Structures are given as C-alpha cells and as structure tokens.
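Course assignment 3, question 2. Fill in each field.
Student: A.L.
Task: Predict the tertiary structure for the chain below.
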Amino acid sequence: MTRPAPVAATWGELWRETSARLADPVGARWLMEHTSGLAPAELLRDLDQAAPEKAVAELADLVERRLGGEPLQHVLGRWGFRTLEVGVDSRALIPRPETEVVVERALVELDRLGAARPDTELWVLELGTGSGVIALSLAAEREAVRVVATDLEPAALELAAANLSALAPGAAARVRLVEGDWYRALPEDLAGRFDLIVSNPPYIAEHEWAGLEPAVRDFDPYTALVAGPSGLEAIAAILAGAGSWLGGRGSVVLEIAPHQAIGALELAGRAGFAGARVDDDLAGRARVLVGRR
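Answer field:
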C-alpha cells in the first residue's frame, strides 16, 4: 500500500496543527523553522504560503518522533550552545544551560591567568568531552587557549570531531581530541602543563537513574550520566588526579548535582583545593565547583 500524499497546507495551518499536537508552541516553532528552512521573520511573512509537499511530509515525521518522547534536540539534530551550533545525537549528552555556566566559570579562571594578554598561551584539559561543546567554546572564545579533550567512548569522540570540523579553522587548530579514560588518556609529558581542568562528568548515582526524566534516561548515554553507587565517583577521580596535571596556579571547574555540593567540597579539600567554592546555575541551584591551587 502506498502512503497517501500529504495534504496541501499553508505554513500557518501547519504551525497551528503542530502546536496543538505537541502542546508546545516553542518546540513547534523550532520544527517549523527547521523544515521550512526559513528564518523566524521569513516564516512569519510566509504563513499564508503553501508549504511544499516534501516539507509537509518531513514535518509529520519529526512531529511523530517528538510525540514518541525523543528530545527536541535529537529531532532537530543540531542545537545552540553559547556562540556555537553543534550536532546533537544519542552519542553524547544534550548540551544544556547548566553547562554554559561551567564554560562561563572556566573563562573567568582563564582570564585570571591572563587569557586576554596576546603573548599568553594557556593549556586546558577537558575530561569527558562528549559532543565537545566545552572544549570548542573555550577555544572559540579565547585565542590564547589550547585544549586537550578526552573521552572514553569512541562514538562520542566521533561526534566531537564532527563538531570540531565546523569550528573556525584558527580555533579548531587549538583543540586536540584524545581517546581514553580520564587522565590515562594523556601522555606523561603533559603532566603539570595544564592551567585549567574542566569537566561535565557523570554525577548521577546508580539508584537515581531509573527516576530520571524519560527524555534524559532513554536518550542520553548511560555512561555519561551514571558515575557509580554514590554519584561522586567521577568527581572524586578528577579531583584526586588534578594535582599531577595542573601547573602551580591552575584551577579546576566541574559540573555537579546540587545535592553534591558539600560532598564535592570535601573531596576538593582533600585534593588540595582548600578554598574551593560551588557557584549557582541560572536557576539558582548549586552547580559548578571551582577550585584553585
């Protein structure tokens, strides 16, 4: 049996139908812009124009995926993060606003070390890069920065490499992707070389995983979410090893769960970051551990 031909419709009719089906006007707008290829102002201008059959069929498929629980970012295949637009899929975590705050705090630390000076070269280590958004953002926003970004999962590094290839050539040349498990991915000659270690590590406890929202639990990689029985395992490993890889004035910036603030600060103190603090995210929740040597 052949599939029925899409019913002719205007962009305005499709927008109203999509908004009603998804009960999400914002998500509907994103899907409309994606399938139409039109900028927001252009789409508003053309609401009375007939949509091409191909676009109608594509929109129908995307709506079904969204109704099936697939995250909007995966349905679109791309998402914005600070100054970047990156590819997004099930190989890595979806870039989220909390992680943009991690980048902001990392930039503060780099500026403290002189990132704005033209004669400065600062080295950053990102552990567990996933889609690469932290590493790529730091390289794109600070010309003085060189980044080594690691990940244990080859599939995640493939996604990061694809996103790196879309970065401006000057910034892309200052990012190196390395496969491996935390610090074991690094050559010994980089010991003591880094000015900043940054990470959005797994920080979900094993018993918490089943209670996550389906859009997270069913589509983000388990290994990028779950650290172990307590949820602090990856954070502890990063902090414990940081001293061997940081230079004398180096910093560490880590994303954590709000309820882990006290435990993460204790771990930081044991690792030699006595003045560590935890900063809030945009929603006012404890989210970013910042420690200085």
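Instructor remarks: The chain has two domains: 11-68, 79-292. Residues 79-292 form a domain with the Rossmann fold fold (CATH 3.40.50.150).
Grade: pending
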